[in-house]
Write a structure and sequence with these properties.
The complex is a heterodimer of chains A (628) and B (486).
Chain A: H1 7-22, H2 28-49, H3 51-55, E1 61-69, E2 74-80, H4 82-105, H5 112-131, H6 135-153, H7 160-191, H8 196-206, H9 209-226, H10 235-238, H11 244-253, H12 258-265, H13 267-270, H14 274-296, H15 301-321, H16 325-352, H17 370-384, H18 390-405, H19 408-435, H20 452-467, H21 478-483, H22 499-524, H23 528-536, H24 541-546, H25 551-558, H26 562-574, H27 577-582, H28 585-597, H29 605-627
Antiparallel strand pairs in A: 1-2
Chain B: H1 12-31, H2 35-65, E1 74-75, E2 80-81, H3 84-103, H4 105-110, H5 115-134, H6 138-156, H7 163-194, H8 199-208, H9 215-231, H10 240-247, H11 250-275, H12 280-303, H13 308-328, H14 332-357, H15 372-375, H16 377-391, H17 397-411, H18 415-440, H19 453-471, H20 474-481
Antiparallel strand pairs in B: 1-2
Helix pairs in contact in B: 1-2, 1-5, 2-3, 2-5, 3-5, 3-11, 3-14, 3-19, 5-6, 5-11, 6-7, 6-11, 7-9, 7-10, 8-11, 9-11, 10-11, 10-13, 11-13, 11-14, 12-13, 12-18, 13-14, 13-17, 13-18, 14-16, 14-17, 14-19, 14-20, 16-18, 16-19, 17-18, 17-19
Classes of the chains: A mainly alpha (628), B mainly alpha (486).
């Protein structure tokens, strides 16, 4: 079966190709079901191919498809090892559920089939990224997911905000990609190849710690762009302009975890540089608490989840930075379950509320949409770290590992603990605001439970959010044993041993979670005047949180120069926003340059002749003078 | 009495094309047949030419492998070469011609009784450029250049009804003559300095002698670079390109641009790298400068165009710069690979332009491409592949081509040029992405598009080649790397 693992990528790719050409002839739900079947089939193949790893003891195999550019060690090859298998299962498994959900969610959209074309294309790209057997192919997938994300954020391109958000995501990701690209060049000049197997086995002998630090930090820049870490996180909240299934699939469960995957995959390089490890972990912890504090005060149901995603990705970076790779990947997996569930639940709510996203205008939806309410409640408890739900086990393993590593990491552990408290608070706040209390709906809105095609994925994800954590508990380290062959070249960080320590640490984080949840419940399960007063009591902090510390403003003022902002304003009024979507801010500078050069093209032959002659004279003088 | 030994094989491909051109005209005069009949005659001529090219290729490979005389590859009183480089260039030209005619078929059909003239001109142009890629003598290069160029001038003005087409033809002709004059003057100065017209003899001259005051020769080199730079539309000798690309009938532009690029770059590579390789310290900086200016200037100007044909014109200026990094790197095979790959993409792109805005039309606003993905998914998908190929995205032939010339320039010590090239590539990516976004992310205007079958075929071939050679570049790379000049 391992030889057929290329099917995992090929199925959704074929789905995208077929839908592109035949999509408009298919009637509405059919295109969606076809796309779901393509990715579902991909899940089945991945599951069957992963059986040897589940049975244990099996090492990774490289499946070579064909030679692409052998000179740089860039073959089309798949590395099928436990790590890539797990990633593929998460992408295809959660992906399938989101595909099915989208059939209901996108009902009635004019470009229904186009949406599923992009979704399938995204899945194929993401699978290329995680299954790649060398950095060249990883980079290919890395760029392709970025492109798909851009297409999908801007899917409703007639909304100017959607086009602007797509543009922002594109530019910020370019910054990260530049870091990754330079890092890969360093890798290539050092090893003469980009192939994983060639690099990781030789890394210990051939890489100096200085070089490992440089590569690690450059990779971190790339990872921070893709995975929305401080200071490059600003694009993710805006990316919520895309359809909600896109937010669930790309901006919560899969694409944004690519940075975590990159660090975990490059474990052998990070192994050689403590500096890089500490930087990764610190960036992660800082992101976690920074984004969590912003999430406290958001009113938009999706923006809460967006900042929450940024914050949870910070936990994963903290884990992989502490070399607790298994814990990081474990949290990646459980987070995919409950965060996808939260986003889909939010989508269900938005759907029912006629596209209302302001939580202050919701309330009392528990009776109207019980399935959504209960499943989202489960996810809320899971992310808050209440045992025995999935989030508890993975978050606790991360915090335990940071604690055990000690030193600077003890500080990061405390940061993580405080973040856990904040997380429980803002998630409970969201659930209470949406589902409890008195209805605060706008007139004319009649909420209703979503159709079965949307609620069924919610229920499945809820089950996974409850039991998904049980695959790696201190009592039974199934996932750890599963992933071990992928990390045998590096030393893994573990939580402290012993029942007493476990109970102490877990008790602390459960306490933090319960305290946050209880505080939010008490604060918000009251009349709206009362909780508005509660929020006012935190001024001016609350205002800062609500405005996300004004980082976008600062970036706008410091990085985007005043002149360009004027151009930006003019462009939004006069230029078709979507064309500007492609030609980003930097591009506009070049455009101006181009416009400046344009008058040369007068159309008169005499002017062309003069230009020609001038060029000739310059060339002649240059050559003759250079030779003298 | 000495009878010179004449190797007819050396010129049989060109002979086939020229006789084919004559046959098309005669058949038209005698029978006034349907367009398909003329098409058959042309196809016959091209097939014959291709067949002889294959024979030449086999002989060239045998000679290199030691099975024949290397000297046999210099034929026809040392005028014509049959080395791998020349034959590969010929082959690329012939394939481009065949595809170019197919792409412009709807236009040719629409020309009425003048369609035979158009076909004859195309065959003659290809014959001329074919001589240009295989000439060993600078005068032969010039002859081929003129035969080809004059045919192209007429083709640019073929749809006489349109004044923009006339304007394009006249501009092309005036500036082209200017460039040809400069080129031949350069040839004369080289002769004055070395006493040689033959490229191989010029090479021996410079490896045997050191010229203490090379002023005349350097001016000659400069003028030849300028003349050929014009033909490949390198900046700052590119001013004609946007006007001609926009004004000439869409059905022909792809072909015109592609063959001129192939022949021009083959001549540049042959003259500079083979003939004047010993003087490279002198010309390398200038060529690198032209290359950088073309890449950056072309990409910048392409970014601001509102007409897709002008955009393609400027992007071809940029591409000329990219290919020139290969000349700087001394990579004859890399240069050939790049132009061969690009020629197909160019012909395919203009097949799309012709399908969207009508084959005889001038001007094709970018707006016509809004929502093309809905109006004709096949056309949009094919065009997207070609655009991404030109942008040099990995897994397309454009990436392999760019990677090849860049790495050659890098190892030749021109790191700064490669850095400029990579940055210009990023810029060029924005240029192409803009069209893709326009096709996919805007609402459709206008009804479903009727695409002629010929255009469909051309697009399919060009897109397939872009992808196949991007994924499996081995076969073409091997071929190109065994296509080195003598």
């Amino acid at each position: 079966m391992t030889e057929l693992v290329w099917l995992v990528i090929a199925l959704p790719l074929a789905g995208a190709g077929f839908l592109h050409f035949a999509g408009k002839y298919l009637r509405e739900p059919l295109a969606g079901w076809l796309a779901s079947a393509a990715i579902g089939g991909s899940f089945v193949v991945a599951a069957v191919a992963a059986v040897p790893f589940i049975q244990g003891g099996e090492h990774g195999t490289a499946v070579s498809l064909w030679d692409w550019m052998p000179a740089i060690g860039a073959s089309m090859e798949i590395l099928w090892d436990p790590l890539s298998a797990l990633m593929a299962l998460v992408v295809t498994g959660v992906g399938s559920l989101i595909h099915i959900f989208a059939i209901g969610y996108m009902h009635g959209d004019e470009r229904f089939h186009r949406f599923f074309t992009y979704l399938n294309l995204f899945a194929a790209s993401m699978l290329t990224l995680v299954l790649a057997g060398n950095y060249a192919m990883l980079f290919l997938g890395w760029e392709l997911v970025g492109l798909c994300s851009y297409l999908l954020i801007g899917f409703w391109f007639t909304r100017p905000t959607a086009a602007a958000a797509a543009k922002k995501a594109f530019i910020v990701n370019r910054i990260g990609d530049l870091g990754l690209m330079v890092g890969l060049m360093l890798v290539f000049t050092t090893f003469g190849t980009l192939s994983y197997t060639g690099i990781f086995e030789r890394a210990g002998d051939e890489l100096t710690s200085g070089l490992a630090t440089a590569i690690g930090l450059l990779f971190l820049v790339g990872a921070a762009g893709k995975s929305a870490q401080v200071p490059l996180y600003v694009w993710l909240p805006d990316a919520m302009e895309g359809p909600t299934p896109v937010s669930a699939l790309i901006h919560a469960a899969t694409m944004v975890t690519a940075g975590v995957y990159l660090v975990a995959r490059s474990a052998s390089i990070f192994e050689l540089s403590t500096v890089a490890q500490v930087t990764v972990a610190t960036v992660g912890a800082a992101t976690a608490i920074w984004a969590a504090s912003i999430a406290l005060a958001q009113r938009d149901i999706k923006r809460v989840l967006a900042y929450s995603t940024v914050s949870q990705l910070g936990y994963m970076f903290l884990a992989v930075g502490a070399t607790a790779y298994v814990a990081g990947i474990f949290h990646l997996m459980t987070h995919a379950f409950f965060k996808a569930l939260l986003f889909l639940g939010a989508g269900s709510v938005i759907h029912a509320m006629n596209d209302e996203q302001d939580m202050y205008k919701m309330g009392g939806l528990l009776k109207k949409m019980p399935v959504t309410a209960v499943t989202m409640g489960i996810a809320t408890l899971a992310i808050a770290g209440i045992p025995p739900l999935a989030g508890f086990w993975s978050k606790d393993e991360i915090l335990g590992s940071a604690f055990e590593r000690g030193g600077w990491f003890s500080v990061l552990w405390i940061v993580g603990l405080v973040t856990a408290l904040l997380t429980a608070f803002y998630m409970t706040r969201q659930w209470v605001l949406v589902f409890l209390g008195q209805p605060r709906w706008d007139e004319g809105i009649e909420p209703h439970e979503s159709p079965r095609v949307m609620t069924a994925p919610l229920v499945i994800l809820a089950v996974l959010s409850v039991f998904g954590g049980l695959i790696n508990t201190p009592l039974r380290l199934t996932l750890e044993h599963f992933l071990e062959p992928a990390f045998e070249l590096v030393k893994l960080q573990h939580p402290p041993e012993g029942v007493g320590m476990f109970i102490l640490l877990a008790g602390l984080s459960v306490l933090a979670g319960l305290a946050g949840a209880a505080a939010a419940y008490l604060a918000y399960n009251r009349s709206s005047d009362e909780w508005r007063g509660f929020e006012g009591g935190f001024e001016p902090l609350w205002g800062a949180w609500e405005k996300a510390y004004g980082v976008d403003d600062i970036y706008g003022r410091v990085i985007v120069a005043p002149g360009k902002r004027a151009a930006e304003a003019a462009a939004f009024q006069f230029d078709i926003p979507i064309i500007d979507g492609a030609v980003n801010g930097l591009g506009r500078v070049f455009r101006d340059l181009g416009e400046w050069a344009r008058p040369i093209q007068t159309g008169y032959v005499r002017n062309y002749g003069a230009l020609f002659l001038a060029g000739t004279i310059v060339v002649v003088i240059w050559l003759v003078a250079g030779g003298a | 009495m000495i009878t010179p030994e004449i190797s007819w094989l050396a010129i049989l491909p060109e002979l086939g094309l020229a006789l084919g051109a004559a046959a098309v005209l005669l058949v038209e005069v005698q029978w006034k047949p349907r367009a398909q009949v003329l098409g058959m005659v042309v196809a016959g001529a091209l097939t014959i030419a291709l067949a002889f090219t294959v024979v030449q290729w086999i002989r060239a490979q045998d000679a290199v492998a030691g099975a024949g005389q290397l000297g046999d590859l210099v034929a026809f009183s040392r005028m014509i070469l049959m080395d791998g480089f020349a034959v590969f260039g010929r082959f690329a030209l012939l394939v481009t011609t065949a595809i170019g005619i197919t792409a412009g078929w709807r236009l040719i059909e629409g020309l009425g009784r003048r369609r035979a003239e158009a076909l004859a001109l195309i065959l003659l142009a290809s014959a001329g450029f074919s001589i240009m890629v295989s000439a060993n003598n600078l005068v032969m290069v010039f002859l081929g250049l003129e035969v080809g160029s004059i045919a192209l001038y007429v083709l640019a003005g073929m749809t006489r009804s349109s004044s923009t087409s006339d304007e394009a033809a006249l501009k092309y002709f005036l500036l082209g003559s200017f460039a040809s004059a400069i080129f031949i003057y350069g040839v004369a100065l080289i002769y004055a300095g070395t006493g040689q017209f033959e490229i191989l003899a010029i090479r021996s001259f410079f490896s045997a002698f050191i010229v203490t005051s090379p002023g005349v020769i350097l001016i000659g080199i400069a003028l030849m670079i300028v003349g050929l730079g014009f033909k490949v539309s390198a900046a700052p000798f590119h001013a004609w390109a946007p006007d001609v690309y926009q004004g000439a009938p869409a059905g022909f532009v792809g072909y015109m641009a592609a063959v001129a690029k192939i022949a021009g770059f083959a001549a540049i590579a042959r003259i500079l790298i083979t003939g004047l390789g010993d003087l490279e310290v002198n010309w390398l900086p200038v060529v690198a400068g032209i290359s950088a200016l073309s890449m950056v200037g072309g990409s910048l100007l392409a970014l601001v165009q509102a007409d897709i044909r002008r955009m393609l014109a400027y992007s071809s200026v940029a591409t000329a710069g990219f290919v020139m990094t290969g000349v700087v790197g001394g990579a004859t095979s890399g240069v050939l690979f790049y132009v061969a790959v690009y020629a197909l993409q160019l012909v395919g792109s203009f097949a799309v332009v012709a399908a969207v805005s009508g084959p005889a039309n001038s001007a094709s606003s970018m707006d016509e491409y809004q929502g093309l993905a809905t109006r004709s998914p096949g056309l949009a998908a094919g065009f997207t592949i070609l655009l991404l190929g030109m942008a040099g995205l990995p897994l397309t032939s454009g990436f392999v081509a760019k990677f090849g010339v860049f790495s050659d320039a890098w190892s030749a010590g021109y790191q700064w040029l490669v850095i400029v090239a990579v940055l210009a590539s990023v810029l060029a990516f924005a240029v192409y992405l803009r069209v893709v976004v326009n096709m996919y992310m805007s609402d459709a205007e206008g009804p479903t598009l009727e695409v002629p079958d010929t255009a469909r075929w051309v697009l399919m071939i060009a897109a397939a080649a872009t992808i196949i050679w991007g994924i499996l570049p081995g076969s073409l790379l091997d071929l190109a790397s065994s296509a080195f000049p003598l």
